[in-house]
Amino acid sequence: xxxxxxxxxxxxxxxxKMYRANKNNFKREFSELYPELKGNALADFxxxxxxxxxxxxxxxxxxxxxxxIIASLFAGLIARLPDLLPIxxxxxxxxxxxxxxxxxxxxxxxxKNKLSVGKIVFxxxxxxxxxxxxxxxxxxxKSDTLILACIHLPLFLWSVxxxxxVGGRQNNEQRRLGFxxxxxxxxxxxxxxxxxxxxxxxITIGLFSLIGFxxxxxxxxxxxxxxxxxxxxxxxxxxxxxxxxxxKVSPVIAKLFSPLVVVxxxxxxxxxxxxxxxxxxxxxxxxxxxxxxxxxxxxxxFSIAETSNSGKSRVQxxxxxxxxxxxxxxxxxxxxxxxxxxxxxxxxPNRIAVLGGNMLILINLLLVTLQLFRVLAxxxxxxxxxxxxxxYLPVYFIWTIIVTxxxxxxxxxx
Length: 414
Known about the structure:
By secondary structure, the chain is mainly alpha-helical. It has 3 domains: 2-50, no CATH class; 63-244, no CATH class; 248-410, no CATH class. 82% of the residues lie in helices and 0% in strands. The chain is globular. The model has no long low-confidence stretch (mean pLDDT 83).
């Protein structure tokens, strides 16, 4: 669509037709293209028009709203399959929770972006392949590879969702960063929806209990499950049709939490020296250490996506640089601890998975840290940091494929 916008830049009527054909896609593509068009009278007019903040909530077309409602109900039915089919909760939910949400969100973006038949076939094939593999893996009571597959499968499906969001286009760094920003906005919106749902649940159950009806079991099985499954879908729809709802909240959260995490991580690293905890010997501590690493990494990526989107901020860039350096230090400790455990206790699927994941994260962090340093040294701009993240995202996708699809066979389902 970008090329069409360029071609018809001076044809107001044609631009209007393109806009009305797909408003969200037109706005997204025009916003990415506008820095090149700034100064053109018609381009400036369209920029003002598209970025005018309407205080009213846009509920989209009736067709879009109907599709979202159907998708939400379908997600609830998937979540309730253990009650409808002879499947135990213990078997179904660890393997299939990700299939409640990700395929439907992927279908939504595939529809919105009007993907080609070939790309849709690829998406359907990958989702079905993941579903068949995870459900046909042996139901072994203690299987590290099964646990690893269940952990990495949501990441695999998240990557497929990213493919649909980007539109399957290659070398589109801005759209990949947009995907990270979408995830941050979705977390904010879904959290608000869930909080509202929790309040409604409490009021409903309380009111019915006052008149002698104990509806807890029925409510959670038939209403709450559907609400939980629908929350990310509705959250996605609202963020896509009303970007202004969280458009100002997410940057504030990014700027607020980045310095707080710097302080927390610095204090935590100092406290480790006095706690006596040893990641080289304490397996549980090492697991928590890695969970901390992933959480901080997510904050860095989300903050950079917001900073790249909102423009230059030297103070914010400096904070992100310090946070990246601290995270590299945490990653280095975790990586050395994993290598020590492998040398002392041998190779296991868990250790190899954690080792591979930590090495990939370390390389990505070093690239990000280097680019942040170049920005602070005024040798580059903030967009280069975003490119170093977006360029690397497919590497994580490949790793999730290896762990999810190949580890169970490599290690004999152990």
